[in-house]
Amino acid sequence: MTTAVPITKRIFSGAQPTGQLHLGNYLGAVRSWVIAQAEYESYFCVVDLHALTMPQKPQELREAIRRTAALYLACGIDPKVSTIFIQSHVPAHTELTWLFNCIAPMNWLERMIQYKEKAIKLGEDVNIALFDYPVLQAADILLYQPHLVPVGEDQRQHLELTRDIARRFNDKFGNTLRIPEILIRQEGARVMSLQDGTSKMSKSDPSDLSRINLLDTPEAIRKKISKAKSDQILGLRFDANRPECYNLLNIYAILSGESRETIEAEFGEAGFGKFKPRLSEVIVEYLKPFQSRYAEVVGETGYLDTVLRDGSERASYVANQTLKEVREQMGLIPPISFSLEEGSVR
Ligand code: TYM
Prior knowledge:
By secondary structure, the protein is mostly helical. It folds into two domains: about 10-185 and about 300-345, 3-Layer(aba) Sandwich (Rossmann fold); about 210-300, Tyrosyl-Transfer RNA Synthetase. The chain is built from 13 helices and seven strands. The strands form three sheets. A three-stranded parallel β-sheet has the order 1-2-3. A two-stranded parallel sheet has the order 4-5. The chain has a two-stranded antiparallel ribbon with strand order 6-7. It is globular. Bound molecules: ligand 1.
């Protein structure tokens, strides 16, 4: 008699430690991670090396790396079932990037929209790593051979590239790498800026008024919502031609759990003057449990370090297996250990 062994599926995802995680990061990505961890073997990475592709102040970056990891925990990632780690603590990420650099065509990277947008902003200051960013992202993912990668809509092109790099590797060297599926939930996949309903809520927007950070105080949230861009049309509707109105209603719908019909029935005749204070209160209440868990996580001396140490050990174990295989298939030989005592190469 054979017993079926359940195959645990894996997921991998990550966020950059720049500034703070905001509502867009949570609704587009982290919320999916929290749901998925019950079902999948999960790896969640703080991608610090990606953050270095843009100018950073070292002390602020150090703080943001720890804060991002603590926020993963505060959002409900459970280190007993999921692996949380810092990208640069697992050197396999950079090594696999180099190996992929040797097979990724330049013109695939030249097509990347995020690179083009950032390069325009930076002008002559644009560095090589910013161009290579999607290859590092492919290495992040493929090291863990995940079945699924849950992300927001803005990551679709990078994920398609990851799949192309995996296919190219497999075509050239044999079927080693799993081609991961992209998981983008419809709800919350693209939360827009509070100051411009046509551009996404982003950590890199110079105006803090454009986003709700997960650690914002109630006062800050009320101020940001009251100053959020709106329109002059009376009656609030989920109308895609009214991007600011749509975005605010959408945030309200996701956080309150109410249906669009209920919300339109309630605010269909009202203006933003009535709606905005209600939206502020929904956000304040929604974020309260995150903020108290965050305080607990950072308040317990040594806890975060223990989670990150265990996480990087577990992640390294899986990552190094893939790296070893890729190295061998590309024709590299295993490292030769050198014994100091005997003065010989083994
Ligand atoms: P990052 O740090 O910009 O964002 C982290 C996650 O949040 C999602 N997201 C949003 N979702 C909805 N609305 C928004 N306004 C919004 N803004 C951000 C992103 O889609 C993402 O899922 N390149 C990645 C980090 C990365 C990565 C990886 C992700 C590096 N390696 C491997 C997945 C797998 C980035 O910059 O995400």
